[in-house]
Design goal:
By secondary structure, the chain is of the alpha+beta class. Helices cover 51% and strands 18% of the residues. It is flat and about 65 Å long.
């Protein structure tokens, strides 16, 4: 693939189910070097993988609960719910192994845990740009949510026009014998940004591996600018009618 890539092309598709299949775990076990191990050793490794991925599933459930509580509370305030929809995603084993290879990350559980921070992720699609920052602020102000990293592609879009606010946070998950801080990637964007990113992903997928033609990439960049203009216009109209959200 040639040309710039959006955040969507760096992660597993968000429509993937949260549950991870046995076959996917076997592929990751092979990537971990257990392809020629004895049956018992492979079984033990897959048990470790299941436990490894389980805490990310729990971390994702924790952040989803927080988002759902915010959405319901804000809806009951009478000004409308700023969250249009929420899409959780847990990377598949194959996607984790592929990212490890792409980033030169050693394929061991300890290295995967330390260096791949978007195994669990959730996308929040909001009505307006101001809602993106408002919801993000509400989440990271919660005392048990630790902000690790912010990448603001709304203030500074990617060269291809991609816009979104990316946060890496850590969520405590209380296990039976310990507390685990689980990293979760949160992507926040508007409906217009989400529509553009979805279309851009489909186009790059269609042209992989030959690369998207230059004229089409230019058209996508122009469309991203149009989407940003629409966001600004709708924000202005909303504030003119209802005033700034509080």
């Amino acid at each position: 693939m040639t040309g710039p890539q959006s955040g969507d092309q760096q992660v597993e598709r968000w429509q993937q189910p949260v549950e991870m299949r046995e076959e996917a775990l076997k592929r990751l076990a092979l990537a971990l070097g257990a392809g020629h191990a004895e049956h018992d050793a492979l079984h033990e490794l897959m048990t470790d993988l299941n436990q490894f991925l389980m805490v990310y599933k729990f971390g994702l459930a924790e952040i989803e609960t927080k988002i759902n509580i915010l959405a319901e509370e804000l809806a009951h305030r009478g000004r409308g719910n700023p969250i249009e929809h929420v899409r959780p995603r847990l990377k598949t084993a194959a996607s984790i192994a592929a990212k490890a290879r792409r980033t030169n990350c050693p394929v061991t559980l300890d290295d995967l845990r330390a260096r791949i921070r978007d195994i669990a992720g959730v996308r929040i699609v909001c009505s307006f740009v101001s809602d993106v920052y408002r919801v993000a602020d509400m989440l990271i102000r919660q005392p048990d949510v630790k902000l690790v990293l912010t990448k603001d592609y709304i203030a500074q879009p990617k060269p291809n026009g991609y816009r979104s606010l990316h946060l890496i946070v850590e969520i405590p998950v209380f296990m039976s014998d310990r507390v685990v801080l689980v990293p979760v990637e949160i992507q926040l964007r508007t409906v217009a940004m989400d529509f553009w990113a979805s279309l851009e992903h489909k186009i790059y997928y269609k042209y992989d591996p030959v690369g998207v033609p230059t004229a089409l990439r230019d058209e996508l960049l122009s469309a991203a600018e149009d989407a940003a203009k629409l966001d600004r216009r709708m924000e202005s109209l909303h504030q003119e009618i209802h005033g700034p959200r509080i």
